[in-house]
Each structure stands twice: as structure tokens, then as C-alpha cells.
Write a structure and sequence with these properties.
The chain has 421 residues and is α/β, with parallel strands linked by helices. Helix content is 38%, strand content 14%. The chain folds into two domains: 277 residues, Aspartate Aminotransferase, domain 2 (3-Layer(aba) Sandwich); 132 residues, Aspartate Aminotransferase, domain 1. The chain starts with a helix and ends with a helix. Bound molecules: pyridoxal-5'-phosphate (PLP).
Length: 421
């Protein structure tokens, strides 16, 4: 029976047997012990299931992976050391030098650096489209070396909502999978697989951990994409590094996620530590509860800012007059996220004075944890750009990004009000 998300958050992934620890144990072990050399040989041939070495898999991580896969409705998941490494491993799983992929402009800045600068140095080309581009304009970017489409459910920091069904249909018309970064929505507010996405990635550093204590990432496989359509030989043809294993033939619907682990995680080693996976799991236990509170608080803060004459504009997908409202109603009926961007009257100087005057909300380079925080991109993450360059990137000098926490919303509103004053 399919369980509800709140139940999976608390009970998923780890089911202790009679007399075993009630709480997920931390298996702080690099190594596993075998009764025979033959058994280990079979593990190395991928002929039997089991752990070989903690650079590839670990029992603590396996439980957290199972929980996240169940939350997203996928067949399997793989934890990584960061959101960045999760994205990288997902891309490299089906891309080699000479290949390209098609990607929304409206994504996290760190992902843009990875895609447009670093992957380019490895011969993998990212072709970007604006969300107002027509289907025909997006399809014109696809050629015989295109391997997938990529977008973000709710983009960080633009807060645009990705029309998953539309882009899944477009990708599938060309025999390509759709990858979706679901970090800001979390599976509590949106499950991209329900709308046709094939692979989901996460920075678990954000709401999943939710306490700003562990950097991590995750790749989740829907198990529904047909890799045998001729475009994906790396999943259908023999892998010589495993004595000719064919991933689809041997692992069926879990081919993508199995290959990502046994081949790429083995070779690149961007694994999460068991201790971090334990902390992430504690965060996941309260994910449904926290996301709900983040959304209710952010909705009230967005409405307050929207009605305040000292504020020049507010961007929040949950606001009724947001250009994203229709997409938010469709994909995010329970709420969008806790992140809001807005401008204060008086431009850059007023934005700085406002931020310096906040007492409860702290200035940090992070979003999506329990504590309310703010960041002024024009003077920090984008400070090397002049006002003209900022405008081209959609960042106005007065833009403040606020990540609304789970404190009492009256205290958050009072803080904003006194700082605006
Ligand atoms: C933070 C973030 C990432 C990168 O994750 P790290 O855990 O910081 O490596 C990727 N995507 C989105 C949407 C993010 O917000």
C-alpha cells in the first residue's frame, strides 16, 4: 500500500527487526566482512546484492536512500556528498564528450557554473532556453547528440515554476528523459515523477536536512524511462569494467540508478558519510511538518510585503497576482516554498540598510533551513557585476532574497516591520 508522505518521513527506509535498534544506526564502517572469497567475487561481478566498500554503498545511506526514493515515488535513489555532485553524477551517467543537453535558464547559479563552464571544459555542451521560449524554439536546440532536458521545479533564486508536464512531453517526443531539480519544492509539495519527469535531483542541504548542518545531495530514478530506444548505449551495451554487465538487461527499471552508483560513484567517490546520512535522516523525519510551516509563514510574509508601501515589488509563486500563480496552483497545490524575493524602495542602499537593521533574520549564504535568513545578491554573490549586468541576470540592485524560517510568524513580521522603519 502506498503510504502518505508524513508517514514515510517518519517511518520510511528503516524497518528494524525483533530486538534491533529502533533508531537508524550509524554504520561508521568503510568495510564489510564475507564468509567466502567466492561470495566477494560475485559481488564484484554484480551477480549478488550487498555492500563492498563505503565509497559505493553503506547500510546507513541505503536506508535514507530508500526513504527519499519512497517519498519521490521512484525505484531507487543514491546519496551524494553535495547537491552539486548529485547533479554532476546524474549528467555524467548518460553524457560523454561530444554530447549536449538542453536546460532552462531559470536554475540555480551553481548549476549554471557547472553546466556552462566546467562541463564545457569536458566537452559536454549545455544549451539553454528561456521559460518563455516556444516548444519549437526549445526543440530547435535538440540534435542527435542531445541526451536529456533539465529544469528546476521552483528555481533558486528566480522562483519560477517549471511546467514539468509540458517539458516531459517535449523530451519524450525526442526519446529523451527529463531531469528535474526538486530541491525547493521537496517531494512534500511536488513529486515531479507524477507529471512525467524521469530523474530527480536534490540538494539535501536545503529543506531535506533543514537545519543547515549537512551538505548533501541525492539522485532519484523514476524507473519509468525506456533506455532501450537506441539513444543510450551506456545503459544497454556491456560495461567492460564489470565483465560485460548490461545495466538494463540485468537491473531492469533500476538500470540508471544502479549504473550511477556501481560505475560513477565507484570512480568519482563523491559519497556522503554515514554520520551525515544519519543527520539528514533526522531532518527528513520532520520534513513534512517543517515544509508546511515554512510555506504558511512565507505566505504571510509575502502578503505583508505585497501590501506594504515601503516595498517596491514582491516575487513569490504563492501570491495570487504572481505570473507563476497558475503553474503554482497546478504543481504546488499545498504551497511552494519558504523563499521570497523582494525589493525595498530606495534601491541598493536602502536594501543594505534594511538588511543591517534586521535582528531576528540573519545575513547568511544559505536558504531553506529553520532560521529566517536574508541575502543581498547585488552586494554578495553577484557583487562583481555593475547595475547593467545585474539587470541582464534578472537581479535588481534592490533585490533581497529572504528564506522564511519556522519561527513564530508574528516575530518574523515584527522584525521586518522594524527594519523597514
Ligand atoms: C543549493 C542548491 C544546489 C547545490 O547544492 P549543494 O548541496 O549546495 O551542493 C543545487 N540546486 C539547487 C536548487 C540548490 O538550491
Amino acid at each position: 500500500m502506498e503510504r502518505k508522505p508524513e508517514t514515510i518521513c517518519v517511518q520510511g527506509g528503516y524497518e528494524p527487526k525483533n530486538g534491533e535498534p529502533r533508531i537508524l544506526p550509524i554504520f561508521q564502517s568503510t568495510t564489510y566482512k564475507y564468509d567466502s572469497g567466492e561470495h566477494l567475487g560475485k559481488l564484484f561481478d554484480l551477480a549478488v546484492d550487498g555492500h563492498m566498500y563505503s565509497r559505493i554503498s553503506n547500510p546507513t545511506l541505503a536506508c535514507v536512500e530508500k526513504k527519499i526514493a519512497e517519498l519521490e515515488g521512484g525505484v531507487g535513489a543514491m546519496l551524494a556528498s553535495s547537491g552539486q555532485s548529485a547533479t554532476l553524477l546524474a549528467v555524467l551517467n548518460i553524457c560523454s564528450a561530444g554530447d549536449n543537453f538542453v536546460c532552462s535558464y531559470s536554475i540555480y547559479g551553481g548549476t549554471v557554473n557547472l553546466f556552462a563552464a566546467t562541463l564545457r571544459r569536458f566537452g559536454i555542451e549545455c544549451r539553454m532556453f528561456r521559460l518563455d521560449a516556444s516548444d519549437a524554439e526549445v526543440e530547435a536546440l535538440i540534435d542527435e547528440r542531445t541526451r536529456f532536458l533539465f529544469g528546476e521545479t521552483i528555481a533558486n533564486p528566480a522562483l519560477t515554476v517549471f511546467d514539468i508536464e509540458r517539458y516531459a512531453a517535449l523530451a519524450h517526443r525526442h526519446g529523451l528523459p527529463l531531469f528535474v531539480d526538486n530541491t525547493f519544492a521537496t517531494p512534500i509539495n511536488c513529486r515531479p515523477f507524477d507529471y512525467g519527469a524521469d530523474i530527480v535531483t536534490h540538494s539535501t542541504t536545503k529543506y531535506m536536512d533543514g537545519h543547515a548542518c549537512v551538505v548533501g545531495g541525492c539522485v532519484v530514478d523514476s524507473g519509468r524511462f525506456d533506455w532501450t530506444n537506441g539513444h543510450f548505449p551506456e545503459l544497454t551495451e556491456p560495461d567492460e569494467t564489470y565483465h560485460g554487465v548490461r545495466y538494463v538487461a540485468q537491473f531492469g527499471s533500476a538500470a540508471f540508478i544502479t549504473k550511477a552508483r556501481v560505475q560513477l560513484m565507484r570512480d568519482l567517490g563523491a559519497i556522503m558519510s554515514p554520520n551525515s546520512a544519519f543527520l539528514l535522516n533526522l531532518g527528513l523525519e520532520t520534513l513534512a511538518l517543517r515544509v508546511e510551516r515554512h510555506c504558511r509563514n512565507a505566505e504571510k510574509v509575502a502578503a505583508f510585503l505585497h501590501d506594504d508601501p515601503r516595498v517596491s515589488w514582491v516575487n513569490y509563486p504563492g501570491l495570487p497576482d504572481s505570473p507563476m500563480h497558475a503553474l503554482a496552483e497546478k504543481y504546488l497545490p499545498k504551497g511552494s516554498c519558504g523563499v521570497i524575493s523582494f525589493g525595498v524602495k530606495g534601491g541598493r542602499d536602502a536594501a543594505m540598510r534594511f538588511m543591517n537593521a534586521l535582528r531576528l533574520a540573519a545575513i547568511v549564504v544559505h536558504v531553506a533551513d529553520a532560521r529566517t535568513s536574508v541575502l543581498h545578491p547585488a552586494s554578495t554573490t553577484h557583487r562583481q557585476l555593475n547595475d547593467e549586468q545585474l539587470a541582464a541576470g534578472g537581479i535588481t540592485p534592490d533585490l533581497i532574497r529572504m528564506s522564511v524560517g519556522i519561527e513564530n510568524v508574528d516575530d518574523i513580521l515584527a522584525d521586518i516591520d522594524q527594519a523597514l522603519r
